[in-house]
Fold this sequence. Notes:
- The complex is a heterodimer.
- Chain A contains 7 helices and 6 strands; from the N terminus they run E-H-E-E-H-E-E-H-H-H-E-H-H.
- By secondary structure, chain A is of the alpha+beta class.
- In chain A, the strands form 3 sheets. A two-stranded antiparallel sheet of chain A has the order 1-6.
- By secondary structure, chain B is mainly α.
- Chains A and B meet through strand 6 and helix 6 of A and helix 2 of B.
Amino acid sequence: MARMKxxxxxxxxxxCNGCVTACKNEHEIPWGVNRRRVVTLNDGVPGEKSISVAxxxxxDAPCMAVCPVDCFYKTSEGVVLHDKDLCIGCGYxxxxxxxxxxxxPQDGAFGLRGKMDKCTFCAGxxxxxxxxxxxxxxxRNRLAEGKLPACAEMCSTKALLGGDxxxxxxxxxxxxxxxxxxxxxxxxxxxxxxxxxxxAQASGAKS
Amino acid sequence: xITRKSxxxxxxxGALALxxxxxxxxxxxxxxxxxxxxxxxxxxxxxxxxxxxxxWEKSIKAxxxxxxxxxxxxxxxx
Lengths: 207, 78
C-alpha cells in the first residue's frame, strides 16, 4: 500500500511558484488561502535555497491530535484529510502544525474565521469522489483519477516530488548519487545535525 | 362517519407531531480521539477503476516513475 508523501529538492527549486499556481488553479482556491507556498532561505544572498511547503501529511499528525471535534482522518494511503462539515474553525490545528499548513478563509464581513482548508494531496474529502460537493469543499480529487498532486506533476524542474514515499525517496537518492551532492541541503542532516558534529557531550551535558 | 372537523384535527395533530420530531436531539456518542465525520471511499471505488485496487496502484506507480527524469531519459534513448 502506498504511503503518500511530498519531498522537495532544494537544489532544484527555482522559486518559480509553479506549484502554488497549479494548486490554486486546480482547486479554485479563494483569495487569502494558500494551501502551498514557496519559502526561500537567505533570500537575495548568493546560494539562497527555496523549498515548496504545504501539508506534509505527517505520519503522526499533530493537527489530528489537537482537534477538539476530531474532524481529521487518515486514509489508507497515508493522506491526512478532514471533514469540513464538522470543523468549527477554532484554529488549534494551525497552532499545532509545524508547517503552517492549515488555512482559514475570511468568512463574513467582520473577519470571522471560516472552516479550515489545507492541502488534500489532491485527494478530496469525505464526499462522493469527484462530486460537485467534494470539489466545492475540498477541490479536485486527482488521486481518484489515478493521478498524483497537481503541484508535483506540474513542477518544471521536478524539485517537488509527490507520491509513494518509498518511490520518491528512491528517485531523490538516485538523483543525489548522480550529481554527488544535495543530501545535506534538506533532510535528516539538516534537521537533526551532522555526524561530524556530535552533540556537546564533552561539556558534561546529561541526557 | 369521518367529518371534515376530524380530518383537520388529524392533519393538525400529524403536522404537530412532525414539527415536534424536529425538536428532538439525537444522542451523540463521542469517542475522544476518533474520527467523528463522514466515512470516505477508497480512491479506486469509482467508475474509472471499478473497485480495482491493482489498476489504481498501476496508474499511480506509472505517475510516480514519471517524476524520475533519469529513468525517462534512459527509456526515451532506447
